[in-house]
Amino acid sequence: MDVDRSRLRQQTIRAVAFDLDGTILEKGTLIRDEVITALRSMSVRGIVCVTATGRPFEFQRELFEAAGIGAGSRVITGLICDEREIFFDVNGQYQPHDSWNDLVRERWIDVYPVAMEMLVEAEHESTRRGFEVRRLHLDDVSFSRGLPSLVFQSPADAIEIESWIEQELAARDDHPLTTNRNVRLVQVFDRKVGKGLVLAELAKHLGIEREHVLALGDSSNDYTMLNGRFGFQCATFDNAEDKLKGMVTNVGGYVAKAPAGLGVVESFTAYGLL
Predict the structure, then answer these.
(1) Measured between alpha carbons, how far is 146 from 235 in angstroms, rounded to an integer?
(2) What is the pLDDT of residues 69-97, one digit of tens each?
(3) For residues 15 and 97, what is the distance between their CA atoms, to the nearest angstrom?
(4) Among residues 96, 95, 85, 87, which one has the least CA distance to residue 192?
(5) Angstrom distance (rounded) from CA 186 to CA 2
(6) What pTM was estimated for this model as a whole?
(7) DSSP sequence for 91-138
(8) 133-135 and 177-182: which strand pairing?
């Protein structure tokens, strides 16, 4: 793909926010050396590097520490965890963004029962349609992480149930929920969080205008930070779903020829960050 650098406005990027699985993370635990080198190079140039993922805090902390780019390295200076909470590297330790995280957790106390009711309905609907499905977490984990989730055997089944949940929520007045999907995983959660909204809060806290943020992801749960609603610049990769590639193209973002980690490095290069 030829790169139209006038559209990419590479000179404006001050922060990059990236998903993990299918983006910088491959096979569940692998971050390519090329990605680590790129992140270190950008951080030296003063570009803020943060995550935007549904992975929990402890997983991210241990992953980046093992890769030598954790807290104290000045490489990854912010974490979005469980698609709702924010942590910043402060004096070599990731510390919670309390003013945001506390409000998120307080609101979830009221939203959680409604979310679990919707999850049960979706589970029953899945069974009625003959889909093979199971819950990802026990109820206490769903509560603590804020992400009640169903796992399907087939991505096509997950797409169908995600659509069914969206229709159900749209038909209900003043509902507090939203849904998204990551390949075979369908989530039901507080509509006042999700990657786009949380990344907007992170950028605000850092004093970075949204148009100066580059967001990178590969799946349905990345839509809200890639669809142009919040004004972020965006990129995706060869391994992304066709629908997401089309959306990124339509909003003037970059679609890398390479998959996952190599596609991330290609995207950084296309935006003039390397």
Answers:
(1) 27
(2) 999 999 999 999 999 999 999 999 999 99
(3) 18
(4) 85
(5) 35
(6) 0.94
(7) TTEEEE-HHHHHHHHHHHHHHHHHHHHHHHHHHHHHHHTT--EEESS-
(8) unpaired
Half-sphere exposure of 26 (CA within 13 A, CB side): 14
**Distance between CA atoms of residues 264 and 236, nearest Å:** 8
Element (H, E) at 88: strand 85-90
Q: What is the pLDDT of residues 242-256, one digit of tens each?
A: 999 999 999 999 999
pLDDT digits (tens, 9 = 90+) for 182-218: 999 999 999 999 999 999 999 999 999 999 999 999 9
Nearest C-alpha neighbor of 157 from the set 183, 191, 178, 124:
183
Mean pLDDT computed over 262-268: 98
Cβ atoms of 134 and 151 closer than 8 Å: yes
Give just the sign of the alpha carbon dihedral 232, 100, 104, 91: positive
Distance CA 52, CA 60 (A): 11
Residue 228 pLDDT greater than 70, yes or no:
yes
